[in-house]
Amino acid sequence: MEEEFVVRVESAEEEGFRPLGVISAIWGELSGGVGPWGAIRPLFAVALSLVPFLFLGQHFNRQHRKGGEWFLIQFPLIPAFLWPFLFVWSIADAWWVSSGIVASSESMNS
Predict the structure, then answer these.
(1) Does the residue 41 lie in any domain?
(2) What gap in Å lies between CA 24 and CA 75, rounded to an integer?
(3) Which among 10, 29, 45, 75 could bridge 94 via Cys, Cβ 3.0 to 4.6 Å?
(4) What is the CB neighbour count within 10 angstroms for residue 42?
(5) How many whole angstroms separate alpha carbon 51 and alpha carbon 54?
(6) In this structure, is residue 1 part of a structural domain?
(7) Which domain holds residue 96?
(8) Cβ-based neighbours of 67, under 8 Å, separated by 6 or more
(9) pLDDT tens across 4-44, in order?
(10) What gap in Å lies between CA 39 and CA 31, rounded to an integer?
(11) What is the pLDDT of residue 30?
(12) pTM of the model
């Protein structure tokens, strides 16, 4: 059984030059199409997680239990000089989780 495919070419409507159209296209490329908050949310989570000892990036991502547990586990790690590893891991985790939140919310909106 043979199937036929039909290809239609639609004429492109030429629109006039719009400066706002150019700016919105540039913004869409810079923000990855997730809007201003979606582009800034991971950076904001990293900025909060740079505050030492409080793990605010995890709280910002609504992972309060993880932030609380990491707050308690840091005290035995301070004398063992392992605290910097937990601190760097919390920064990476805040970025990763926040990026995942943005990606999942954008996939739900599509």
Answers:
(1) yes
(2) 48
(3) 45
(4) 21
(5) 7
(6) no
(7) 19-109
(8) 54, 55, 56, 57, 58, 59
(9) 877 777 766 666 667 777 777 776 666 666 667 677 889 99
(10) 5
(11) 65
(12) 0.66
Angle at which helix 35-49 crosses helix 83-109, to 10 degrees, equals 170
- Domain count of the chain? 1
| Dihedrals phi, psi of 62, to nearest 5 degrees | 60, 35
Eight-class DSSP state of 44: H
Map residue 60 onto helix, strand or coil.
helix
Looking at residue 18, its amino acid is R
Per-residue tokens: 8: 């239609």
- Rounded-to-integer distance, Cα 21 and Cα 85, Å: 45
What are the tens digits of pLDDT across the range 62-91?
Answer: 999 999 999 999 999 988 889 999 999 999
- The answer as to whether 14 is a domain residue is no
Examine the pLDDT at 1 and tell me if it is beyond 90: no
